[in-house]
């Protein structure tokens, strides 16, 4: 198995769509624990906000899939099941 | 709609940059007032908003409401003197309206200013506020505004 891919979910407590988006991602990661790492980036703290600026994020939720230091996929707004499932196409099994 | 680093500034509103609030002329001698997109971004998720009561007199650049967010508690200041004629009761139920819809649903109070024309003349309208907010954002080290999906600017 290759290195795990990283999924970052950018969230904020005032964002009504962020909780459901995070749950959907978490459910997928639970099914593919050996393939994905999940990290929540919280924009209510300074570090999270700075990370969001660096990534050019203007809308939340935003979900970024990356591997080997490169961004592979980005979903802006609430994800669909199909969009999230497309993350699995990057797995090297 | 004027925009600065993804922060929205509707053209029809007046702005007090130093107080980081917008003012809408309601055309009947009163104005509504609220936090700008920049202010709500700086504040983060707003937990409580407690406006002063209708009927209260306010002085220029004094507080008309206290806002508490996850990382900040502070006043929202009215740029001119007058009387509060109405408060937005919705905010006591859900203060995150200030984050979601700062310019529409998120008005905080309506005020009857003592000198409406003269007071509005001292504020910047629409895009004229951009240079002031640019400097303000630099001072506060605010890179960009980030909006929740469904943000109603």
TrEMBL record, chain B:
Per the UniProt entry, what species is this protein from, by scientific name? Caldithrix abyssi
Q: Which family does it belong to?
A: Belongs to the GcvH family.
Which terms under GO biological process does the entry name? glycine decarboxylation via glycine cleavage system; protein lipoylation
PTM sites of type N6-lipoyllysine: 71
Annotated PANTHER family: GLYCINE CLEAVAGE SYSTEM H PROTEIN (PTHR11715), GLYCINE CLEAVAGE SYSTEM H PROTEIN-RELATED (PTHR11715:SF3)
Q: How does it assemble?
A: The glycine cleavage system is composed of four proteins: P, T, L and H.
Cofactor binding, per record: Binds 1 lipoyl cofactor covalently.
Q: Which Pfam families match?
A: GCV_H (PF01597)
Please identify the protein, giving its name as recorded: Glycine cleavage system H protein
Required cofactor(s): (R)-lipoate
User: Source taxonomy lineage?
Assistant: Bacteria, Pseudomonadati, Calditrichota, Calditrichia, Calditrichales
* InterPro entries per the UniProt record, alphabetical: 2-oxoA_DH_lipoyl-BS (IPR003016), Biotin_lipoyl (IPR000089), GCV_H (IPR002930), GCV_H/Fam206 (IPR033753), Single_hybrid_motif (IPR011053)
Q: What does this protein do?
A: The glycine cleavage system catalyzes the degradation of glycine. The H protein shuttles the methylamine group of glycine from the P protein to the T protein.
Checking Gene3D superfamilies in the record gives: 2.40.50.100
Q: Which domain of life is it from?
A: Bacteria
Q: What HAMAP family does the annotation carry? A: GcvH (MF_00272)
